[in-house]
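ingest -> validate -> predict -> emit
validate: passed (alphabet ok, no gaps, 370 aa)
predict: started
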Amino acid sequence: MKISHIVLVVTLFAGTIARAQSLVVHAGHLINPADGSVAANQTVVVEEGKIAAIGTNPKAPSGAEVIDLANEWLMPGLVDAHTHITMNLPPAAPGESYWENYLLSESTALRAARGLHNAELLLQRGFTALRDVGNAGDYADTAVRQAVEKGWFDGPTIINSGKIIGPFGGQSHNYSPEHGRFWDYEYLDGDNPAEIRKAVRQNIYYGAKVIKLVADNSPFHYSEEDVRAAVDEAHRAGLAVAVHLTSDEPTRAVVNGGADSVEHGYYLTPEVLKLMKEKGTYLVGTDFPLEHMLAFGGIADLNPRTAAGMILQRLSKRSEDWRKDGIWLRCGRRTSRRKSRGHVLRFPTRMEEGGSSECRHFARLDAKRI
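emit:
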């Protein structure tokens, strides 16, 4: 049995849902990642885009479209909890970065077109839901989500964040005043609780379904009070809050402020991870396999193979602590690009490739908490 065959089945199933209100899928084998079991000769009933029943002979609505997969394997769709489908980072020369030039040279319309292309690629590879967390120009992510929801294009369920909210300057550094506030195309400045609340409301107004903050990408970090303002505003609107973090002290403030997830968290200590467990905060790991590090080129100062080895060592050391302490994990890929295609979609099959061990644990999570 090849994984590609399973993913193909998921894709056919997910792509058909948008065209039919009710589906009856007869599966030769049904995989349940929650307990690792496989059940034979199962029928899945889908109504209004949601699974209504699973069993050997569940009641099916009249007039439902029937899909016969009696000789195939069926599994739940994959979920990417951290990605940026409207952007790709081309390989850069050593010591150079295309980041700022890239953001300034592309229109929102082009970013939306790329997002639709990548959404289709992701669905074809078995991803039926994703969380798109910023860097989408002037709300291209909302346009992509709306186009998919209207059935104009095939794509996964998209939970988009709109513009990233952060302290002055977004994630840019050390630019002269003559350049102006070029980051406004990608970010919303929020330098106190009132500004942060306004930024959250703006994102909600323009179609965000999750709120994204960046808390420690500059010398001025968000305080617990700052984060609590965002959380209060977002939660009252029924939205979760995700926060870009890599280091310990800013993460303490974010977790105590009530954020729902910490994005990246590369260098968090066991003490902070335990605090996240106590508060019910997810860790969304985005550690790169070697293939992605090579694609990033000059964006990172480290040699790609050296960096991938460091990631592997860190993950190996921390994975046992995660399992022991019961840390809630989500799996994210971030983004990168091959020369001729969109996202690098191949997941590493061996830890020696520098892959994320949390991806293996991810399939066992309670789907209601994703």
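Residues 304-325 form the longest helix (22 residues).
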